[in-house]
Amino acid sequence: MENQIKEQKKDLLILAIESSCDETAASVVKNGREVLSNIISSQIALHTLYGGVVPEIASRKHIEKINQVIEEALKEADVTLDEIDAIGVTYGPGLVGALLVGVAEAKAISFARNIPLVGVHHIEGHISANFIENKMLEPPFACLVVSGGHTHLVAVKDYGEYEILGRTRDDAAGEAFDKVARAIGLGYPGGPKIDKISKEGNPDAIVFPRAKVAEAQYDFSFSGLKSAVLNYINGCQMKGEKIITADVAASFQKAVVDVLVEHAMRAAKEFGFQKLAIAGGVASNSSLRQAMEEACRENKIEFYHPSPILCTDNAAMIGAAAYYEFLKGTRSGLNLNAVPNLKLGER
Ligand code: KG4
Ligand code: ZN
I need a surface site. Which of 175, 288, 299, 305 has the fewest CB within 10 A? Predict the structure, then answer.
């Protein structure tokens, strides 16, 4: 595929739009891997007031911000719509009202300017974030996608070709971080707060369970762990014992990280992957990055991870994914719709 790019001899510019959850984002990406601009308008401060994302508020905010964010992305990249070769947009999975804002905007620009439209799967975007800073990374590789809504262990067989090896049976890893953070009084979004306070805690202070799914060895389950933390807190309160928040956070985080690393390593070895990448908001967790790096080093597997800003939701990753889809010939019509429960690999 890289040869194909060279043969074209023309730079391919993608304007990418992402609005699946609580970030309104737009980016201009050159040839799939060079980010010319990456504008993210986060609604986190607004949703923090309610302890989590409020879908209706998210949609309204996206509508308020989207034009401004796109204009900024074009300005920062110093390009005009006339130079854009394709528009990539997340059309699922995510909050339907939030997705619709990005999809409607992308369709409007595509129609008005006659620019090809490429609908992108949000998880494909997260995985593709790895291509941006790792210019040499090419499939095949294994990728652990851990975000607020998803926990997937994916075999990336080729650009745009995926096989899901394992997935969560209940809560996503990020969801567990957010729920536990709320329970121990850290607030929303929980992941970064648990990451930070864990540095002051003892990860071996409390032994929380590492769940296994008997009939599916690469699947995950985090709801039992979340309940174990809640039970521990209730137990302490009933006994009048002091809860050391940093210890609870660090012990919980270690339980999550242990399971993620163990599953990813076992899958990489079993399927013979020499490269392993991580993606999604939880991939910015410092303890996960460190543990995965060490495990990869021990097992002689190359480890890849995006910078934190490209782990959490952004449009640059959608631009990278859209580029490879565009090269494969993927085009979306003006009937493109938001698909809140879109499956990876489906169109
Ligand atoms: O990928 P993302 O921005 O949105 C989804 O597609 O879901 O991921 C957001 C999730 C949240 O649950 C947040 O708590 C978690 O990623 N997260 C983290 C960290 N930073 C964000 N979890 C653990 N450690 C972090 N440093
Ligand atoms: Zn995401």
Answer: 299
What the block records as the tokens of 159 is 């650009």
8-state DSSP, 22:
S
**Residue 118 carries which side chain, given as an amino acid letter?**
V
Euclidean distance between the first and final Cα of the chain, in Å?
Answer: 21
Q: What residues have a C-beta under 5 A from ligand 2, the ion?
A: 147, 313
- Computed over its alpha carbons, how large is the radius of gyration of the chain? 20
CA of 21 to the centre of ligand 2 (A): 8
**Most ligand 1 atoms within 8 A of CB, residue of 282, 287, 290 to mutate:** 282
Distance 313 CA to ligand 2 centre (A): 5
What does the pLDDT look like over 2-33, one tens digit per residue?
Answer: 555 445 558 999 999 999 999 999 999 999 99
CA distance 23 to 189: 13
Residue owning the nearest CA to atom 23 of ligand 1: 191
**Residue 212, Ramachandran bin (φ over 0: left; ψ between -120 and 50: alpha; else beta):** beta
Distance set, CA 176 to CA 171, 183, 206, 279 (Å): 6, 10, 17, 17
- Write the single-letter amino acid at 10: K
Ligand at minimal distance from the CA of 53 is: 1
pLDDT band at 51 (very low <50, low <70, confident <90, very high): confident
- For 321, the 3-state DSSP assignment is helix
pLDDT of residue 232 exceeding 50, the answer is yes
**In which band, very low, low, confident or very high, does the pLDDT at 216 lie, cut at 50, 70 and 90?**
very high
Q: Per the confidence metrics, is the pTM higher than 0.85?
A: yes
Q: What is the C-alpha separation between 166 and 300, in angstroms, rounded?
A: 22
The tens digit of pLDDT for each residue in 131-149 reads 999 999 999 999 999 999 9
**Using omega within 30 degrees of 0 as the cis cutoff, is the peptide bond preceding 139 cis?**
no
Closest-CA residue, ligand 1 atom 10, reads: 148
pLDDT digits (tens, 9 = 90+) for 266-281: 999 999 999 999 999 9
pLDDT tens readout for residues 259-268: 999 999 999 9
CA distance 186 to 174: 14
